[in-house]
Amino acid sequence: MTSPSDSSAPTGGVIRVIVAKPGLDGHDRGAKVVARALRDAGMEVIYTGLHQTPEQIVEAAIQEDADAIGLSVLSGAHLTLFARVVELLKERDASDIIVFGGGIIPNDDIPQLAELGVAKVFTPGAPTHEIVEWVRANVSAA
């Protein structure tokens, strides 16, 4: 007989992802679709909601012991907002949290985001299964 504390599931095996909408952009359908796809794939997802500051997003990621942060930006402020999140993670000694994102991001800006430390950028129309597969392949559970 096993006790409730016995489990065949490995501890720390679930990938924890913060999905966030930084800045003033009020459109979150894409973020919710990605959050749901990740959740349906067995990941633990915390959606922080609209109008989050980079500081709020990083604090949530640290408090929730997240393995990754997925940012969605449609406002054109992606270079500033993504950079600030990466900078704050470094300041908080949490650079092990992987940052990825998507939204209306010109292809010409993707290399600059990569230089800043953004691991992956998904452009509009990216199939959710590709996002899920990328997260599984590139994010390790803590």
Residue share in helices?
A: 25-40%
Low-confidence stretches: 1-11
**What percent strand?**
15-25%
What's the overall average pLDDT, rounded? 91
Side by side, the strands of the main sheet go 2-1-3-4-5
Helix count from the secondary structure assignment: 5
Distance between the termini: 29 Å
State the total count of DSSP E strands.
Answer: 5
The biggest beta sheet is recorded as: 5 strands, parallel
Taken from the alpha-carbon principal axes, the silhouette is globular
In terms of structural class, how would the helical and strand content be classed?
alpha/beta
**Quaternary organisation:** single chain
Fold and architecture overview:
This protein has 142 residues and is of the alpha/beta class. It has five helices and five strands, in the order βαβαβαβαβα. It has a five-stranded parallel β-sheet with strand order 2-1-3-4-5, with helices on both faces. The longest helix has 14 residues, at 78-91. The chain is globular, with a radius of gyration of 15 Å. It starts with 15 loop residues before the first strand and ends with a helix.
Which secondary structure elements does this structure contain, and how are they paired or packed?
Blueprint: E1 16-20, H1 29-40, E2 44-47, H2 54-63, E3 68-73, H3 78-91, E4 98-103, H4 110-116, E5 120-122, H5 128-138
Parallel strand pairs: 1-2, 1-3, 3-4, 4-5
Helix pairs in contact: 1-5, 2-3
What are the defining features of this structure?
alpha/beta; 142 residues; 17% strand; 5 helices
